[in-house]
C-alpha cells in the first residue's frame, strides 16, 4: 500500500495505491468514493474493496476528491465539475503507476455519477461499476443536512449530475450493483449488467461509528465481475 | 499598482504522507507551517482517532485543525491507529489499551526523531481524548493535552439541577408521583423524574461501546501528574454529553481541588453536539484550540 499526493501541484489530491499482490496483473481500477457523510461511513468498505482487488491481481487507486478527506482545499468556492476532473487525474495517475493502457472505474453512490461522467469521452476506461449509484447527495440526505457539504455546493452537484437514470455511460461494459434497489430501467435498457447484493450498506450510519457493516458479498461480486472470475 | 505582500497565513500548508511503526504499518499525514520559523520550534500536535473514524477526523475536523495550526506555526501529525483507516493491524498486543499505547509511543517517537517536533501536544475527541490523556501521563515528551468530550464521572449538584430540575418542577411529574404512591405505596417512582441514563463510573459503557468511564479520582490523579511536570491542558465539552456534562464551570465544580491553576483550561460549547457537526461549531472549536495553543506555547514570530 502506498499513500501519496498527486495531481495539481497547487492543490494536490490524496490517494492510496495498492499494487497487485500477484503478477501478471491484467487490470487496474480507480475507486470513486461517496461524498459527504457517506464518505466517512464507507471508508472501511472502500479500503477492503481495494485490498480484495489487489489480491486478485488488480492495480488499485482510491483517492479523496478536492476539498474532502486529506486532499487540499475546502468545498467553498469549488464546483462539482472539479471532482470529475479529479477522477480524470486519478485515471491518468493510475495508468502511469501501473503501466496499463486502460482502467476500470468503480463508483460508489455519488462517486458512481462522477465516474460515469469522467469516463464519457475517454477511450481508456475499459469498464464501469456503478455501486448503488446516486444522482446528487441532496436526495438521499433530504431532511438530514450534511455537515460536510455546504448547501450551495449541493446545488453544484445537482447541476453536475441530476439523475442516475440519465447517466452518460461510456461504450464499455457496465455493472450495476445494489444492496436494496433494482437497477433503474433507464440503465438496464442500455445493456447494463446487474447484480443484486442484499446486505449491509457500506455508506450508512449504524449506531454511531461503532459498527458499520461491510457488504462482503458485494465486494466479492465486484472483484469477480471485474476480473472475469 | 504595487504588488500586495503575501502574508504567511496565505501560503499553502505543506503536507506529506508519513509511514512509521512496525513495518511502517501506521499511516498518517504531516502538516507543516508554510515557512520554517527561526529559533526553537514550538511543539507539534498529534491527533488521535475517535473510535473508527479515520485520521481526517469526524466531519474532517482533524484536517481543518491541522491546517489552521500549521498557518499559526505549529506542525502536526494526524494518523491512524492500528487497524483503523489506512493503518494495518500488524502490532502484536494483548489488549486494546496496549495496542493504542504502542501506536502512540511510535507516533511520538516519529514526531521527535524524524519530524523534529520539540514536544508533542496530544489531541482527540471522545475515545481519542481518553487515549491522549492515558498516554500523556506515561510519556514525558507530551507537553500538553486537548481533550474534547472526554467521558468521565463529572456530575455535580449543579449538573443534577440542570439535568432534572425542569422535570422536578413540572407539575405533571409530581402529580403522577403523588397519585401513584397514594394508590398502593409500592409503585415505582416515575422514571422521567429520576431517570438515570448515565453509565456508572468504573463500569463499561455499553452506550458508547468503549472502555470504563474514568472516575473523578482517576481523572484528578492523571491531571495532577501532568501538571506536576508543567504540562498544559485544555478540556473541551459540548452539550452532546447530556448524561455527563451540562453547564459552563462544571469541570471545576467537579474537581474543585484543581481550580485556579492557569495551566488547566476548560471550554464549554452549549449549542454544539458531540461531534461538532455544525460547521460553525466546528470552526469555533478549532479557533478555540488554536488560541489555546498560541497562549500556551507561543509560536516563533
Could you state the CATH homologous superfamily of chain A?
Alpha/Beta hydrolase fold, catalytic domain
Number of strands of chain A: 8
Q: What's the CATH class of chain A, please?
A: Alpha Beta
Question: Domains counted in the coordinates of chain A: how many?
Answer: 1
Just name the CATH architecture of chain A.
3-Layer(aba) Sandwich
Unreliable segments of 5+ consecutive residues of chain B: 181-209
Count of separate DSSP helical elements of chain A? 7
Structural class of chain B: alpha/beta
By CATH, the architecture of chain B is named 3-Layer(aba) Sandwich
Compressed to H and E, one letter per element, the order of chain B equals EEEHEHEHEHHHEHEH
Largest sheet of chain A: 8 strands, mixed
Strands side by side in the biggest sheet of chain B: 1-2-4-3-5-6-7-8
Strand % of chain A is 15-25%
Topology of chain A as a string of helices (H) and strands (E): EEEHEHEHEHHEHEH
The major beta sheet of chain B can be summarized as: 8 strands, mixed
Globular, elongated, flat, extended or rod-shaped: what is the shape of chain A? globular
Morphology call of chain B: globular
Largest interface, counted by CB within 8 Å of the partner chain's CB: A-B, 25 and 27 residues
| Percent range of helical residues of chain A | 25-40%
Describe this structure in words.
The complex is a heterodimer of chains A (229) and B (301). Chain A has one domain (2-227): 3-Layer(aba) Sandwich (Rossmann fold). Chain A has seven helices and eight strands, in the order βββαβαβαβααβαβα. Chain A has helices at residues 37-55, 80-98, 110-119, 137-140, 151-160, 185-188, 216-227, and strands at residues 2-6, 13-18, 27-32, 58-63, 103-108, 125-131, 173-178, 193-196. An eight-stranded mixed sheet of chain A has the order 1-2-4-3-5-6-7-8, sandwiched between helices. In chain A, strand 7 (173-178), helix 6 and strand 8 form a beta-alpha-beta unit. Chain A is globular. The relative contact order of chain A is 0.16. With 301 residues, chain B is α/β, with parallel strands linked by helices. The longest helix of chain B is centred in the middle third of the chain and has 18 residues, at 96-113. Chain B has a single domain (11-156, 212-296), classed as 3-Layer(aba) Sandwich (Rossmann fold), CATH 3.40.50.1820. Chain B has an eight-stranded mixed sheet with strand order 1-2-4-3-5-6-7-8, sandwiched between helices. Chain B is 34% helix and 16% strand. At the A-B interface, strand 1 and helix 1 of A face strand 1 of B.
